[in-house]
């Protein structure tokens, strides 16, 4: 997994970083916790410059978040609740969970969008209630971009620093990265299998 991701990043450069970070926010095949440290690692080894890797990661992450924001804004609360009621198993979401997310967003607003960028799963889901609440697009993008660039930059810097100690970690970083991806897939499948309709809705 390590070699495969680094191969993608080396071959595609900043475009690959942006695309992977966008996908990570739409439907996460590879978590940002792997993408950006490896982008920083490649930068330290002479690949895409660190500043460009961070820029690409932040832009990709922001665009991915905007996708869910635009979906929530276009669908509106009633239609989105109907979608969740019909396809909740594959979304691993119930209408009551969506309602709770809306309530949480209503209480915290911009802070929820900003700090949500640092939390797995939340970084994707928080964009939906922002769209449903019709949060001004400019305000949403500002909070999202700030959080995304801080998150992407921190991870990339960690990977950049790791390069010097690569010999010490090379033996376990590949199986660890593979394990993380498999754990995400397994968690999703577990939620699909364990999902039950919300009979209260």
From TrEMBL:
One GO CC annotation: plasma membrane
Location of the protein in the cell: Cell membrane
Membrane topology of this protein: Multi-pass membrane protein
Keywords, comma-separated and alphabetical: Cell membrane, Membrane, Transmembrane, Transmembrane helix
Sequence intervals crossing the membrane: 12-30, 50-71, 140-160, 172-190
Stretches assigned to the VTT domain: 30-160
Top-rank taxon: Bacteria
Entry protein name: DedA family protein
